[in-house]
Model the fold of this input.
Amino acid sequence: MLVNVSGHVDEKGACTAIKDAAFPAPFVSGLEYNAPSRGTWNIVHVGMLIPKSHQIYVCAANCLRGVVLTAAEMGTLDRFSTIAVQENNVLEGDMEELIIEGVSDILEKLPQKPPAILIFTACIHHFMGCDLELVYSKLRKRYPDVDFVDCYMDPIMRKSGLTPDQKMRLRLYNILEPMEINKKSINIIGNNIPTDESSELIQIIRENGYELKDITLCKTYDEYLKMAESCVNISYLPVVIPGGDYLQEKLGQKHLHLPLCYGFDEITENLNTLNEYLGLSKKEYKDEKLAALNALKEAKEAIGDAKISIDYTAVPRPCGLARLLVENGFNVDRLYVDSFTEWDKTDFNWLVKNKPEMKVYATVHAKMRLLNRKCDEKNLAIGQKVAYFTGSQYFVNIVEGGGMYGFDGIVKLAGLMKEAFTFPKDVRKLIQMKGLGCDCLL
Done:
């Protein structure tokens, strides 16, 4: 049914009070709107984390536009190629030959062979029943000195099984092969942005004589391959859990998921889980907790009772951050979340009880294109999507937690909130920059 959207658009279906929100999916899935906030990473950005690797996308020309523009904006077109699927390939059924010969042609024309090739197939290959096992078998036989990784650009699969983001972070480590375990080496996996060196997590690793490996820190392909020797993989973003479990099974590396969170007790438990694994004494982290509380107090004095909005691209657990801020006197007014994760359920339930009128907005609902959601008064936005939807120039410009972790992360985030509320930003300019922080890998 067609709906007239030229007049007033109400919030029904795109906004709800948190007390009325269904968990984990408060909104009905349907026609979607894509807000022009581009700071989140896509598969091109993530794939480029493998040093010296080359990406090849195999799909219709129309689908190639976005990934080509991403590579161009990153200045990495020399590590990027495409193979266009045309109508005759569908009609003649030569999809396997197209990929094999297309990839071979690209490899022969490159100035030097890259150590790894990431091949991204698309929806059409699922529809056509393309024999990808044959494709990779032929390519590996033809080029035994190149590591081939099967990657996927398949939006049709994004709501069943592993999400595209989960798949990509798993494939990121697919090349690694079993090595002799080095008990003094530790990996942090699945992040696009390096973890702050000042965080308690990194301090535990560094101060106790362990070597830290992280794909965001790797400069050479050999450094990346040596991640296979570490005794443990630490992940803290929920999207990385399948990848960590995969590596535990394949390489025999212990997987410790120490989630990025904002509750003091949980942070302490996470840090002590690592301490215990490394044979260290548990700590209460009294000084660190006090520093976090003082930082929040300073931020509250600057921000006062101004409304605060948080979106899911800024932090993986927006309910957890909202709870921390509400507990410390902040006026958190809105969450922009299309669906919640199981990790946020406890804090979601707390907010339902203690902040029942807090609004939850969808970000992809079609009404969000026209809905009058601007805030008239000065308000603080945490995340790019919130900055766009509320129109606030006062926003914390981070994605995926911004590399901040633990009590140190809370101190830094409180500082960013205080700074953001003091100094306005050019929203239009900043939110259109793709892959916030992706220059860390170039």
In short: The radius of gyration is 23 Å.
